[in-house]
Structures are given as C-alpha cells and as structure tokens.
Amino acid sequence: MSKVLTRVDGRVLTVTINRPECMNALDPETHALMSAAFDRYAADDELWLAVVRGAGGEAFSAGGDIRAMQDALEGKAEYKVPPSGYGGLTSRHGLDKPLLAVVEGVAMGGGFEIALACDIIVARDNARFGLPEPMIGAVAFAGGMHRLPRQIGSKRAMQMLLTGQSIDAATACEWGLVNEVADAAALEETVARWCRRLSAGAPLALRATKACVEAGLALPLETAIALQDSGGYPALERMRASEDVVEGIRAFNEKRKPLWRGR
C-alpha cells in the first residue's frame, strides 16, 4: 500500500497521508509522493480544489519521522525534503488554487505546518495542534515560525512556539486557526459541504483571489490595491479575460446557476 493515497472526485483531488501505524509521520518517500501529488494539482486545470488529510482518524500527521531522522544522523540514510517543502506544500509558493486541510487527531511539528500552508482547516473535535520542535532542540523550520504569527497574532504564536504547548480543536477555532470543528459523525458531511462551497465560485476567480491576497499581504495597502488596476496580478488579468466572467454575468441576469469552465 502506498504511503500517500490520491483520489479524484470531479474537480476535487484528495491527498491522504497513509501511514497510520506511525501517526502519519513524514519520511522522505512520503514527502516525495506528496510533492508529486501537488505538482499534479498545480499543473492540471481540470482540478479546482485539493484536500489533504491523514489516514486512520488518530493523526493528521505527527510531523517528521524521527526514526528516519535518526537514521540520517547515523549516516544510514538521507532525510531529504523536496524543494516544495514538507508534504510538498510548506515551500510551494505561488500555488493559487485552494487547499483544504482536514485534521483528525494530532497535527504536530511538520504536520501542523502542512495544515498552516492550507487556506481552510476543518478539524475533528479530537484534533490537537502544536509545534514542539524546541523540545528536541530544533525549530519550526517548515514555515511555522512565519505562518503562525501571521495567522493568529504574535503573542499566541509565541506561546506555542516557545513552550511547545499544544492546543485542542476548540481553542484553535477560537483563535482563528481552524474554520470549523465537527465530531466524528459529522466530519465527512462537513468536509463535503466545504468542498461544495469551495467549488461553487468560478475557479479562476478563486485563483485570482488567493493570488492577490498572498501577494498583497507583503505590500502597503495602497500599493496592493493600486496593482489591481495596473496589471500587477497575472492571475487577476487571466480572470478578467476569461469566459467565466461573461458566464457569471449572464447567469446572474438569467437567474440560473452558472456553468464554470475554468477558462
């Protein structure tokens, strides 16, 4: 059985870390397989949404495979992470398609950092999030030190980063880290509802939105807005020239559901 499973349902690609026997820890092969899956997602215009989750219900991912790291320290093997980062996502800058993380059980270290690299997080009520790297003499190198403060503010982020303290799903939702929490019985329908929501809008409009938000966050507000009118966001220009813009206006005026084509 592969360490990473992929499934396509219509326009949605689901990528599942499939190592439940070790809490979906990430060894080099798992990193490579996930990176390949997200390469496919980025390149395929027929795929509009990607969902990432862990198998087994007890862990999204416990992070890097410490046993594999020990082997690397002893010179028995190499612990190699692809240029796209942990799980093929944490250093994959410029991916403007939506990403939905479904977190059950623990999301620790690099596993948490994969979830942080996603746009939306749906958590089961048994989820726990943490960055315990300092407890083993390391740091949250895969984006955690930079994404977490941007997402929940400096003080709460530093609390987690400096103490290794984990938080439960309810706290993560209260802090704005998680979009929705569901119990085991409601989880799959909750995920399906989010997939419907994230697939309802025009795909090029969603891509333009994500691209503009991510680029604009690094700019002064006035500059970020001005770039919208000066061609500064290629994804926005692609949307403006698309058939879907015409279809959206027609569908609204004809009081019908639009038929998006992604072009």
Assign the CATH superfamily of the largest domain.
2-enoyl-CoA Hydratase, Chain A, domain 1
The count of strands amounts to 10
CATH T-level fold name of the largest domain: 2-enoyl-CoA Hydratase, Chain A, domain 1
Number of distinct helices: 11
How many domains? Answer: 2
Strand order of the largest sheet: 1-2-3-5-7-10
Distance between the termini: 37 Å
What is the radius of gyration? Answer: 19 Å
Q: Which range best describes the helical content: under 10%, 10-25%, 25-40%, 40-55%, 55-70% or over 70%?
A: 40-55%
Q: Indicate the mean pLDDT.
A: 94
CATH class of the largest domain: Alpha Beta
Note the overall shape.
globular
Secondary-structure element string: EEHEEHEEHEEHHEHEHHHHH
Record keyword descriptors for this entry:
Lyase 2-enoyl-coa Hydratase, Chain  A, domain 2; globular; four-stranded mixed β-sheet; six-stranded mixed β-sheet; 2 domains; single chain; 2-enoyl-CoA Hydratase, Chain A, domain 1; alpha/beta; 263 residues; 41% helix
Describe it for me?
- A six-stranded mixed sheet has the order 1-2-3-5-7-10, with helices on both faces. A four-stranded mixed sheet has the order 4-6-8-9.
- With 263 residues, it is an alpha/beta fold.
- The chain has helices at residues 28-43, 66-73, 110-116, 144-152, 154-163, 169-174, 187-200, 203-216, 221-226, 234-240, 243-253, and strands at 4-9, 12-17, 49-54, 59-61, 99-103, 106-108, 120-124, 128-130, 167-168, 180-182.
- It folds into two domains: 4-199, 2-enoyl-CoA Hydratase, Chain A, domain 1, CATH 3.90.226.10; 202-253, Lyase 2-enoyl-coa Hydratase, Chain  A, domain 2 (Orthogonal Bundle), CATH 1.10.12.
- α1 links the parallel β2 and β3.
